[in-house]
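Re: your question from the hallway

Yes, I did run it. Sequences:
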Amino acid sequence: MSNSSYRPGSSYALIHPDAVLMIALEEAGEAADLWEAIGQIPDIVALINELGRGGLSSMPPFAYVMRSPKHLQLIVRDGYVVTIRTSGGPVVVDGSGVSTWSERRLPSDEVESVQISDGSAHSSAALPVIAGVVQACEVSFDPEGRPLAQRTTGDHAVPTAAAPPEPAREVDRTAEPKAKAKAAPQPDLVVSEPEADHLAKSPSAEAAAEPAGEVTEDRADEQVEGSTPQEEPAPDRPETSPPTDTEDTEEAEDGQGDEDDEDAGATLFDPDDASFDAMFFTSGRPEPEDVPEPNATTEADGDEDAPEPEQVAPEPTPDNDSGAGNDDLDVVGDHDEHTMSPAQFAELRARMRDRGAGDQPAAPRPPRVVLSTGREAALDRSVLIGRAPQARNTTPTGLPHLLIVDDPFVSGTHLELAYRDGVVWATDFSTNGTLLRSPHGEPVPLVKGVPTVIADGTVLEVSDNLTATVAPG
Amino acid sequence: MPAALHPSWTPDPGSPERQIVFGAASHPGNVRTVNEDRWFTSPPVFLVADGMGGHQAGDVASSLVVSTFDEMVRDGVSGVASVAACITRCHERIAALGTDSAAPGSTLVGAVYLTEDGAGYWLVVNIGDSRAYWLTADGFEQLSRDHSVVQELIDAGRISQSAAASHPERHVITRALGPFDNLPADYSWIPVVDDSMLLLCSDGVTSELDDTTIAQLLASGMGTQETAEAIVTAAVNAGGRDNATAVVLQVNGTTGEVRGERRDERASSTDTLPGRRTQ
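Structure:
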């Protein structure tokens, strides 16, 4: 958002032209990883999916505000307060005491300014920021001021025709410098442009040239050294073009504009059981009985809007009409025509994943354990192999996949496999032992109870009649 | 009581030989006037919830647990995720009763019959100091982990198990459903084993009866309903200082064979045949 400022504090604030995330993290490294995710301008659901990988109880406190062509959407958890100054008065969204989260959605033409605070006291002066990651107790910004770039996930800003969209770019963008983006030298963590991969893949020279999402150093220096955090006049805006420009380019190349047209405006999500399950329990392989197959549900597609011929103006839209009152939606469950069904969401996620390897901050698909019987399980969680394996007193997402075998020489809980830090570990718990047979060399028994790294191509002999191997995901 | 009057359930109509027979009993005890314990048996869900706090609203809290799980059963249990979502809803609904220091809360210990990789499994969930126990041919053991101050002291080696029984803080729990920090419940996969029994009970039972006594009652060969009543009665007779509740599940088998002699070893799912390894 333009005209952003912050006060130093201990929360991490990931500030992007079209989205701001304030979050309580343990380490700066986590902020770096999240910066890549934020660069995609995830909609609320995608962000919850990202942050809720470990289940609701391990989701950190955060507040997220994102801009779409017609709305400002935000989600707040315990620990943060978002204050929005609107033409109708201030709107405060306080996450205190909410065990899940609170959502709001406001017409963007009613929003004058937004402030996110983590509630800690502050007395320091506000510092200007254009984009990047800083540690703050409060972030303020004015969501207006610069046109939204086009996005293919969530709302479209397609200027005219609804057909396979020409990426409609603001005129001044074409003149953007070709420098590789680097965030301004903010006081804290600064992350390099995650869309480099995007850029490399795009055949459009224009797209390749655009430093998506962040400010070039020189201009940023000028800004930061300036005395006020205020006006970013038009020349600055091109530099902060959001990463999704390149997505638009790819989309144009796809020649499949039709599938993206469906997503205009689809954002809010009603967490009925199936969708709740989909959000929280589909990291990696979904439980077959929990998650609706992306293409098998009969959810109507009638919810989406046709892409609207919305003018993306280079000037701030004047606060003329607020349309039909306040679109204030109190928590998910009250959705308008922009609801996405679980099937659509799953499909959208799949497309986001397919769009470019590496741009999706989600981890690569985990490997699978494959038994000689043909049964297999994904290593998105631990896998237990045995006649009647048990797992005691863990979390719902820590519950392992069970591969149950009917072999009397196999112990109840015989072998555990886990995927951590890109490496597969095996631990034997059995009476008869497990042999590790690597592609080269003698078979070696696993030491009972000791997690052992399993290299590609290793065969684990669970019994004379049963082996297990690890296959790529 | 004739076995025919015991409620029983066939989890898999394709394998009618496996049946779950169940019974439940509850008593306010000798000291409390209100019974804030609730139990719920609606296959595939079986649970005990012990309400607490909140100016006698503890029974409201434990009742909310039952009604929320009832909704889940009606909507259809589709796996771990539905149980986790149900527990989250319990948390929210109880928290809505109030969040001050005297706000009510509830424990939960439950067993949900699910199918994992084609085999019947109990998803055992626990939050608080109610307990799940398992009696099989291999013996009697506690499945759940107490979320209590006393258990933490034991785990830290600060006090012994026997000292716990008389520890002044033995009823102070560290996790519950309600206005507490959103600490998660424990989840366990326990294979459904033929000729086994599962006991879910509130601390009104375990604070009065030791494990040996409970095991003996479970193994006594009475029907599940009689067993549940006997356990609760024994707890009340031993002191009854708190509400006492027991849900008893029996998998297959007729009475008296649960802790019987080992038959063919291969029939026991907990025994492995010693194997020769061919190199």
